[in-house]
Amino acid sequence: MKMKLAIAGTGYVGLVTGVCLAEVGHTVICYDIQEEKISLLSEGKSPIYEPGVEDIIKKNMEESRLFFTTDPGEAYKEADCIFIAVGTPESEDGSANMQFVEEAAMTIASHIKPDSTVVIKSTVPVGVNERIEDLIFEHSGHRISVVSNPEFLREGSAIHDSFNGDRIVIGANDQLAGDLVEKIYQPFNIPVVRTDVRSAEMIKYASNAFLATKISFINEVANLCEATGANVADVAKGMGMDKRIGEQFLRAGIGFGGSCFPKDTKALQKLAGDYHYDFKILSAVIDVNSRQKLKLFEKAREFYPEMTGKKAAILGLSFKPNTDDIREAPSIELLNELLLAGAEVEVYDPIAMKNVETIYGNKINYASSAEACLQDKDVAFIVTEWEEIKSIPLESYRTKMTVPNIVDGRNCYSLEEAAASGINYLSIGRQMIKSSQHC
Ligand SMILES: NC(=O)c1ccc[n+]([C@@H]2O[C@H](COP(=O)([O-])OP(=O)(O)OC[C@H]3O[C@@H](n4cnc5c(N)ncnc54)[C@H](O)[C@@H]3O)[C@@H](O)[C@H]2O)c1
Question: Ligand 1: does its nearest atom lie under 6 Å from the Cβ of 259?
Answer without folding.
Answer: yes
